[in-house]
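Hey, can you fold this one?
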Amino acid sequence: MNAATTARPGRLVIEDVHKSFEGAAGSLPVLREITLEVRAGEFLSIVGGSGCGKSTLLRTIAGLETVDSGRVFLDGVPLTRPGIDRGLVFQEHRLMPWLTVVENVAFGRTDHVGRQADAEVSRYIDLVGLQGFERAYPHQLSGGMAQRAAIARALINRPRVLLLDEPFGALDAFTRIQLQEEVLRIWRNEGTTVVLVTHDIEEAVFLSDRIAIMSNRPGTLKKVVAVDLPRPRDRITDGFSRLRALVHREFFAVRKTAEDFQI
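Sure. Predicted structure:
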């Protein structure tokens, strides 16, 4: 594990989770038999195609979705509702347009007020590299800068787990790479457990300690791949290409199995 040695506890255990949505045609299974452990301080990515349930699984960890059966634990405590022990960042930044960067970050604060609170807000704005933009409004920021502010807001309460739901998906390729580097820097600095949902295999290999691969409809956890590459990682090395090809083969193997099953 490559997180800082000062990492706070943040061990997630997902036990036999099943989830369905009700529709006009009846019950639609979304998640089936999901069992997974995420170690404290680990960076784990969940990859899968559209509709495989990976975002639903992340929302379940966040407490925004209930399950039909199974349980989710954080440090041994069952999760049944949202809490400040989990920070969530979406694909869209979801900043409040009428608030400045400093106000958006401070809005998520729950534990204290006064000078100490102001210092914490400033620390996280500095951490995500937005010094000098504290008084800017969301419409005055680039997409990457807005996502930095969203990450600062998610971190302000020092959550044990940071949940990232395709946070770079709407960004251009250059900004995406920049923010991947920034998230790694923040992860090393904070020691927070990170769970990233992505459909980008290269992104998962670059960022993760392990990669969980999901099949489609209903989403099933098919394989967990350890990323045994030293950090910092170079995307053009043979080792990186080998891991990317391995995950690619596994991903398309489980997709083909799922498609065959549907036929």
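Helices lie at 54-62, 101-107, 115-127, 143-155, 173-190, 201-207, 238-262. Let me know if you want another pass with a different chain boundary.
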